[in-house]
Amino acid sequence: MTANDLRRKYIEFFLSRNHKEIAGRSLIPENDPTVLFTTAGMHPLVPFILGEPHPAGKRLTDFQKCIRTGDIEAVGDPSHLTFFEMLGNWSLGDYFKKEAITMSYEFLTSPEWLGISPDIVSVTVFAGEADIPKDDESAGVWRSLGIPEERIYFLPRSDNWWGPAGETGPCGPDTEMFIDTGRKACGPDCRPGCSCGKYFEVWNDVFMEYNKQADGSYKKMDRRCVDTGMGIERTAAILQGKKSVYDIEVFRPIIAAIQQVSGKSYGSNEQIDMSVRIISDHVRASVFILGDENGIVPSNLGQGYILRRLIRRAIRHGRKLGIEGQFLKEPAKAVISIYKAVYPELERREAVILDELAKEEDRFLLTLRKGEAEFEKLLPNLLKNPQKIIPGRVAFRLYDTYGFPIEITEELARENGMTIDRKGFDEAFEKHQEISKAGAEKSFKGGLADNSEMVKRLHTATHLLHQALRRVLGTHVQQKGSNITAERLRFDFSHTAPMSPEEIKAVENMVNDQIAGDLPVSMSIMSLEEAQKDGALAFFGDKYSDQVKVYTMGDFSKEVCGGPHAEHTGELGRFVIQKEQSSSAGVRRIRAVLE
Predict the structure, then answer these.
(1) What pTM, to 2 d.p., does this model score?
(2) Using one digit for the tens of pLDDT, what is the confidence trace for 322-353?
(3) 148 preceded by cis ω (within 30°)?
(4) Phi, psi for residue 499 in degrees, rounded to 5
(5) How many CB atoms lie within 10 A of CB 374?
């Protein structure tokens, strides 16, 4: 069963169980800065799990493109990926544990669907902790379905608990489904979740039944939700009998393109294979980030920094394969060809994707040349060290100042009969990471995940800003993305030239006029076609569900949006544009606040 087959069957199954298909969302969270990327299918649904009514109803299903960066160093092993597709189904206050687990089991094992043998399925459930009891209810459902006691594992919070999106909010135990690959156990303690590769996780059902309070306690929720996730690549590998996610059909054309440009054969040498897999993953992830509607490009901050890191790590592994010049174009084109039917934005943005990859390759190759030149300058003094050890602080300065990868410094050191004080480098790097993390945590807090009043006001202000821009600059203006914290809003829109001071002032005044008018904010649910006929703005056409929410602000603004919003514009305060600048080619960015 191919990835395309699996995606289709999953949606088909849940549609037959009275779910509504909704469209997956952007990789770049539009109004939730609690995370840099969409890491799971639930992230775009946080407001609805928190209680907002979803226009498609209480039973939902979709497929979602995701990026996870916490395991970048593990990428290249049989199961870890930076970019992956997640299948999901949700119950927003409808069914709960028994129905969710029963449907999961049926889809996995029924010959009509995936047909996995029940004999190789093991499950884990929450073991309980402090005031939260162990999840006997889920275990009881698994027993009733025929899973024997010896294949039901009670595991702690680190394995079977899904925390809130922020410091507080919905959370709860989960139950996870694993397939026994048949490999020999690594020891007597081998169990699902072990990293030896014997057990492959394929599905996770999360039961949102608690609300974490500000004091750290947990309160039972009246409205309980289910959030599930199945990784397409991992499950396809199991269904195809593959030992690695990199062996499924979606990776073959990418790997073939890398083989072609490198002249190296995949499958003949583990060191070569590891580099090929890392390049395959990082190119695929980079193409999806660059191809996203919200238009991230390589930079030294936030999402742009992650993108730069992925591209440059791919280039470094290209060098390990003996590739000296540009080479990412061909594997990137393979990615676009594989996925363009499912994600048409990749084909629409192909020129941008290939151009940005080429520019970043040029930048990094220049960085490598500068770093190598600096190393050559330092070398005479470094060779005077009788122990032939390069201090960690020197290696870190090459990394921090010149962007010179430690792996290349190590290569140059070996070529000159030297080693690096790696412990000293790691200590300097960890200190740098702690400072960066503290800054990131300060910047990335709040957002729609916390549903705060200030975020609602800023979100409402983006609608007024959008309409004001269209009236001042012209109807060619379309939203290209937004990002909101409790302190400010950031709004990207299509426009080719910098705004003049007069245009900025005109937009600012128009928004403040609507705030002064204390316009009522109303919401109605209708089909996308009805919304567009009614004059509602909706510029992410292939990302909307059949039924959508339309927010209207007096007779000034009407727009399709998920919410939440203020009830009257008079609640917002004074709107001030702090900055207007370029975001990417043909896209401008406004930063604004409410005083």
Answers:
(1) 0.74
(2) 998 899 999 999 999 999 999 999 999 999 99
(3) no
(4) -75, 140
(5) 15
Contact 236, 248 (CB under 8 A): yes
pLDDT recorded at residue 451: 61
Strands 199-212 and 169-180: antiparallel
Asked if residues 384 and 361 have their Cβ atoms less than 8 Å apart, the reply is no
Looking at the structure of the chain, the number of domains it has is 3
Q: How is residue 449 annotated by DSSP?
A: T
- Give CA–CA dist 288/64, Å, rounded: 12
Q: Token pair of 36, please?
A: 């840099």
Q: DSSP for 94-128?
A: S--HHHHHHHHHHHHH-TTTT---GGGEEEEEE--
Q: Are 170 and 261 within one domain?
A: no
Q: Please say which residue of 362, 397, 430 terminates a domain.
A: 362
Lowest mean pLDDT among 3-12, 142-151, 448-457, 463-472: 448-457
Q: Are residues 224 and 135 in the same domain?
A: yes
Looking at this protein, which amino acid is placed at residue 562? G
Note the pLDDT tens digit of each residue in 489-541.
Answer: 999 899 989 999 999 999 999 999 999 999 999 988 888 888 888 888 886 65
What residue type is 240 in one-letter code? Answer: Q
Same domain, 263 and 217: no
Residues 229 and 279 placed together within one structural domain of the fold: no
Which residues are paired to 155 by β-bridges? 126
**What pLDDT score does 95 carry?**
96
Scan for tokens 């459930």, then name that residue. 125
